[in-house]
Prior knowledge:
Elements lengths: L3 E4 L5 H12 L3 E6 L2 H15 L4 E5 L5 H14 L5 E4 L18 H22 L4 E6 L22 H25 L4 E7 L21 H7 L6 H4 L1 H8 L10 E3 L2 E2 L9 H23 L1
Parallel strand pairs: 1-2, 1-4, 2-3, 4-5, 5-6, 6-7
Antiparallel strand pairs: 7-8
Amino acid sequence: MTKTILITGSTDGIGRHLALTLARAGHEVILHGRNKEKLQETLMSLQQETGSNLLHAYRADFSKIEEVKQFNKAIQRDFKKLDILINNAGIFSGSKRQANEENVELTFMVSVLAPYMIIKDLQTLLARTEAGRIINTSSYMHHFADTTDLDFGFERVYSPKLAYNNSKLYIIWLSRYFAEQFADQKLPITVNSYHPGLIATKMVTGGEPIITKQANASQLTEAKNQPKSVEEGIKTGYYLALSAEVADQSGFYFDDCQVKPVTDQSFSTVSLQKLLTYCEDKISVFKEANHG
């Protein structure tokens, strides 16, 4: 049965390879990228490689709230339903803090706030299927997050490594939150997060694994192992998208196609609510600035 699958950040790395593999399997795939030329090249390349006429491409810069909202509206306009949403887009920012017009630090914006907005806006499309699935790309590096003061925007002290690690923890928090919300509302949507492995893509090529806190030997071994190929890196994402084994599993974190434990540091109902409030506050700032 053909699934309609949206993959954000699908012009590079595991996003692109997931798109290629799913399109080859006969599924309808919606591509997303920030760069217009690269997105068009990806679309044409995947069409040639797969022979599929079920490929679509949408450009949006997820560092900007306005473009996330326009992206969501375009998907809502053009599709009656979504079977699978894979929030794969992410960045590792530079040494200096960068923020958008609403003062959202860009790592958080692309990896946390954008997925939050996309899930909220597109859940209606996902609920129109018998079994909608949301898959959020996290990372093993969430174990090295430091959320002591819950400074989501790193407005006091900025660290690119912590911004990355923390964003991968926060997306796990949001996965849990939406999984519980959809279960309470009896919506047929599961939400899970996963670690694709250290992939040899632009985000990590030429750099060290992103570690910020002291770790034990086994953690360091896991974090510093040799980068996986993209073929290996997509296995868990592909499994979460299509496997019947996880049809009823929601709110979990996966690695190597298995449920794995996550760090529960700083996690509580209070900290989750602070994260949700921060996201909603930034969306409100945008709305007030653009609509009076």
